[in-house]
């Protein structure tokens, strides 16, 4: 049984484990004030070409989203998200639990545009309704699509015109940035968004997301929020060491590239036998539409999620690849699938 | 410079790191549904001699406290804590951020008694005040003291009579249970409290606390709360592997015993030169009272917190030992101190 | 200028003011423990034919909704509402501010059915999503429609089967119950829902809603929640006196009947000139679709809300009648409209 | 039986009721946008001699406190209050329910000073603790004492130096300002505090508090907060008419003066027979210490709260007078008491 269920089925890239082992008995200050965290933050700032951002290392995606959004918003302000957005559907109401409504927008491709956001703004006219204030996007999105630079630029301009905070969930930012279709560089992002995070958990770490706050007015007292929401790890070194290892050379990008290469291989081979996809995903999640009996047969040897019923005979499945996906497993899957077709 | 600042200055016990390395490429389900977490839970249940408890592995202490207390209480209900209690002073209002007041009680030794709790109950008479509902205790306490079995039994009985939830923060439970003065066994605890957690972070793990819910009525839907509060790690295996390693033999207790042995050695030697202590601590935190000039001199070579001003010339410092504290460092500290005295 | 903007443009029915004057200097206990509130509660229980319900008098609709829903739900549980539901769109995120997501359902007529609710339940499968727990309906709805007894019975049965709390917002319950199409009696409601409120503000009171809690398990400590959310008026008598006056004879129903008679007159006359309506409303809010130039002309002499753009030339307006609507004003409006047509 | 239990035992001053009657059938916009509310706001601004403040009319004290404090604070910030402060003990955790800790300070006289506040600031050193941000005071205090101008000035200066928000709960501001010992005028207050409210409920209204926001940065979007917390009355006119009546001449102050005159009479006569008081109160709440058997005897004909046990034989009771307190009742009480003495 080989799993394509997600990109967090294995532990961490071996270099990361080795870095943990090597530093294990060094005494460090707690709560992210260790030297590794500080060095990791410096490395990421260099990559971004920006000294004036604040960077915080947090344990996971939902933790990062709820801490950030609740820190940025006043009580009557709301977030806007695609209806496929992680905060809208898959975080058990974490944002609402901090007191804020999430306004959702129906989208085709999981991406927000100025026009879509404007519709929400136009609808919210007075104090009997929440005040839309933060625009939440994911790159890559929850359905594998990615933002092009021009799309991001236009959304960014719109948000600035309308005094909205633009926040990017980068749980799978590595895969987005290493996608063949991508034209955004990591160092472009701070000029477009007010805050974003660089996902480690789904790109080779045991855990960890690096939150980057770009807008000055949003930086204040942020460590209080991390602590209050339970995200300030006593052994912050655990995050620092991992991000240091990911960014001291090209490891972060190498791992994402491997994940994309594996999903690209899957997509290309499936296309050859005329399999259709639910979304046009250039990143590490793909959603092929298969006959239900083929799905049943594949389930004997492979793990994956059935994403959506397409018609009475067909469903879309989700295949996720990662830094750890073995090419032989991909080839075996393709072989097995072709035999069933 | 050697640090006695806390018990989370180093990484993890080497056996834990090795276990992470050994299991690294095995594919596991996410979110605590991996085989390691399941095995760890089974091992702890065996240690507790109880199959009917629910056990959840969480990332840190504040996260565990806020998730648990907010899950257990209705909106108008409050927690009761010693004024030295971690949730009252050192969690940045994490409990209040979930909507609940923390009622504090002045104590001598950091411990709650039926009489102290009764005072709070008697004061809260009607719906113009919060309803005290959960009693929060720490063992060992934040000032190093521990509960004796008889103390815990009486508090437990009182809470049951008054329909209060008794919750024990076990961030340093290992040290408490391995203290020479202790007469409680791990397997005794579920019969006394409604929920408690076994601290891993401060006893040899990279991170992780094992929450044990003993009262049936408090178990329902608990994973929803963990997810909502941002505590459900995608790679839950990281917690499972560590607790499995701590409890597959006696490692958890061995580590705590070492920590206690080191603090005991410190305390014994300091007593020999007639140094007084702020509290009578039989666990891994001790609070010697030293002349300020001695403190200043020690700070050149040792890290520790200055805890409290005692008088114009003296302050209490906090020395914390851990599984990783080296005996040579302790002896050197004692030597250096004696020279200064 | 005559206003059809809403059913709270005037003060209170004169009998209510007189009752306030008559009782003014009697000394009463505060916070709803006065004799008037107690008598009002008894009167309503008699009307309901139920001694075993709990009744609380609160100041307004949003206050009642947020207090009730937050008291009934645990942190991870969510409310379900029509997308036209007041709590979803017009309470500034009041429910979310207490920590709970509101899941919305697209509807044709503002009403929920078992099938619609089931769709939401089916979608929410595990702890990564909120747990739908409370079904919020309004009768009459925000777009003037009302529930028939059979519809309510079926929804009620479904909720019981699926362990959902059924809560009815009765801001305009008077108008619903006095509608010609209605077949529900006030005393039927407790057998169908777990809680509901009888709206006073929009039916002749200065303010006030009478919350009726029918399900035993939801009653406990409710006054704590009212106090905590700021709804426990020091001079609770203000609510008690008004509800006593509304229910000591048939006043509550007489007032609603007048409102309906006035909206019925409007609707009948508008239909005669072939004006279409956005919704088929048998209650005191109607939504005629008019040419935009007619709307502009009417605005010179009449106040009302423009509800929705229908096409480039037409919009729907909302006309609301109340206990205080004067028949002459209605006739004048009809005359003026016919002249414009 | 005559009640000295509180200052909200009766309805409203007759002039207020008459104003409600006179305006009853005028049609007005809802939600505080009626002409009466606007005129009331203008009148109060004139009294304050300040055009640049924002004034909002809210239904009650707890509602005002929770709406204001939650609107002003970010999630990690806390309020500071005397341990006798209403928000700390008698609002069922309303502030905590919005997510904020209330830090309490032990006081002799219910009043805060720069020194007392500084102690709290000094204790809160880093992000592991909440950040004290708002200083909550009551004038008169919950135990009847009042602030002198110099005290308020010094506290105000300290708060500005330390970037703290100073907020005054004026539930009984009328009584404070009309006290013989008072040297503050209503128009002085905006120069000292960032926000305060003028209490109507306890000074002749059926309900209602006028919140005055003085600091520019705290004004934004405040109506959203009122609506979200359930405090935006549909018939806002109910508040507007009452405050208009209170402030269109000297009624607000006349009523408070009467209340003070009655408590002064009580205090003077009790002093004559050498009765001691728990606090030196120059306002409309006094706390005489009486032998328990005297208290029991008085309870046959008079209502009041037993405030505190003083020793085995004596308790302090609370006597509250109001605009409605009849002088004959006061004299009768004094007579009866003297007979028992």
TrEMBL record, chains A, B, C, D:
InterPro entries linked: ArAA_b-elim_lyase/Thr_aldolase, PyrdxlP-dep_Trfase, PyrdxlP-dep_Trfase_major, PyrdxlP-dep_Trfase_small
Gene3D superfamilies according to UniProt: Aspartate Aminotransferase, domain 1, Type I PLP-dependent aspartate aminotransferase-like (Major domain)
Molecular functions per Gene Ontology: lyase activity
Cofactor(s) for this UniProt protein: pyridoxal 5'-phosphate
Membrane spanning stretches: none
Pfam families listed in its UniProt record: Beta_elim_lyase (PF01212)
Domain of life assignment: Bacteria
Keywords for this protein: Lyase, Pyridoxal phosphate
Residues of the Aromatic amino acid beta-eliminating lyase/threonine aldolase domain: 25-285
Statement: the UniProt record of this protein carries the keyword S-adenosyl-L-methionine: no
Similarity field: Belongs to the threonine aldolase family.
Full protein name: Amino acid lyase
């Amino acid at each position: 049984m080989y799993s394509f269920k997600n990109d967090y089925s294995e532990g961490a890239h071996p270099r990361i484990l080795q870095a943990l082992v090597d530093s294990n008995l060094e005494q460090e200050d707690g709560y992210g004030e260790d030297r590794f965290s500080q060095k990791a933050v410096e490395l990421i700032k260099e990559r971004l070409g920006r000294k004036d951002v604040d960077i915080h290392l947090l344990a996971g995606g939902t933790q990062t989203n709820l801490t950030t959004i609740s820190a940025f918003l006043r009580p009557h302000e709301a977030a806007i998200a695609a209806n496929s957005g992680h905060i809208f559907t898959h975080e058990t109401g974490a944002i609402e639990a901090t007191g804020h409504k999430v306004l959702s927008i129906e989208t085709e491709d999981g991406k927000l545009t100025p026009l879509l956001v404007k519709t929400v703004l136009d609808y919210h006219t007075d104090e009997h309704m929440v005040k839309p204030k933060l625009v939440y996007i994911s790159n890559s999105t929850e359905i594998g699509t990615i933002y092009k630079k021009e799309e991001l630029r236009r959304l960014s301009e719109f948000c600035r015109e309308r005094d909205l905070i633009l926040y990017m969930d980068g749980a799978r930012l590595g895969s987005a940035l290493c996608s063949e279709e991508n034209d955004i560089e990591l160092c472009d992002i701070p000029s477009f968004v007010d805050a974003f995070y660089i996902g480690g958990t789904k790109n080779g770490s045991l855990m960890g997301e690096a939150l980057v706050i770009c807008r000055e007015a949003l930086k204040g007292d942020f460590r209080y929020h991390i602590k209050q929401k339970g995200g300030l790890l006593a052994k912050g070194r655990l995050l620092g060491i991992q991000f240091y290892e990911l960014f001291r050379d090209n490891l972060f990008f190498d791992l994402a590239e491997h994940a994309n290469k594996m999903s690209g291989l899957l997509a290309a081979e499936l296309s050859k036998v005329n399999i259709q996809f639910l979304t046009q995903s250039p990143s590490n999640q793909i959603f092929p539409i298969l006959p239900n009996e083929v799905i049943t047969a594949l389930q004997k040897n492979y793990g994956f999620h059935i994403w959506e019923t397409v018609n009475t005979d067909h469903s879309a499945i989700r295949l996720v690849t990662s830094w750890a996906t073995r090419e032989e497993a991909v080839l075996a899957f393709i072989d097995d699938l072709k035999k069933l077709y």
